[in-house]
Specification:
mainly alpha; two-stranded antiparallel ribbon; globular; 2 strands
């Protein structure tokens, strides 16, 4: 399937764009399966909508930082293997890959350290809402947008994502095969680098589906 860029608006809410964001989308498309790519793009757009509803005009929010964080958050699922380490959680692999992408991009030459760190934190913490929900708005919104792809509108903060908004985004980036993709990725991580999975949600899948996998003595 050809690369699909996001629309300029979702439910009358402007979607950030530009050469840096476009190049991040191209990187995600190159390194992720179609199902995972659609997931990161839905997560990005859910975050855009949620931010529009829960933040006020006075709240600090860097839309470009959020865009890169959401779009690149699963580079640790790299289908090619370029960004996958032998000894780090997939979230950390993704955070490092995103940081390296920004440092090498001609479109981010003047990014200060704190913006890069926000991207790193957003990605590294996106599976830990008990921490990310209390971080900077960019980190919090990234986590909420990703969470919305698993929990839907009813599992998102009240008033932050309507069913119509959710459906419009899913229509643009379908969920077909996503649940099985997550399961397969997590099984693969439990088999290839189990030490990175014992203390997180990945291990929940390993205990059910991976023969011989056990967290006993590892937590």
């Amino acid at each position: 399937m050809a690369l699909v860029f996001p629309p300029h608006q979702i439910a009358n809410i402007s979607v950030p764009s530009g050469p840096l964001i476009d190049s991040a989308i191209e990187l995600a498309y190159e390194h992720l399966s179609l199902q995972a790519f659609n997931h990161v793009m839905r997560s990005f757009l859910f975050g855009v909508v949620i931010a529009a509803h829960v933040l006020t005009p006075h709240d600090k929010f860097d839309a470009q930082v959020h865009a890169l964080s959401a779009i690149l958050h699963d580079l640790g699922w790299d289908k090619i293997g370029t960004f996958i380490s032998k000894d780090k959680r997939f979230e950390v692999d993704g955070a490092i890959a995103a940081r390296n992408f920004i440092s090498k991009s001609k479109y981010a030459k003047h990014w200060p350290h704190h913006r890069v760190q926000l991207v790193w934190d957003s990605i590294a913490l996106h599976t830990i809402p008990s921490i990310s929900n209390y971080k900077e708005n960019e980190v919090r919104i990234c986590g909420l947008g990703i969470g919305a792809d698993f929990l839907g509108p009813d599992g998102s903060p009240p008033g932050s994502l309507s069913h119509d908004e959710y459906d419009a985004i899913v229509k643009h980036y379908p969920r077909t095969g996503f649940v099985q993709t997550v399961k397969d990725v997590f099984i693969g991580l439990c088999r290839t680098k189990p030490a990175t999975t014992y203390d997180n949600v990945v291990g929940d899948i390993g205990e059910v589906y991976v023969k011989g996998y056990s967290r006993d003595g590892h937590r």
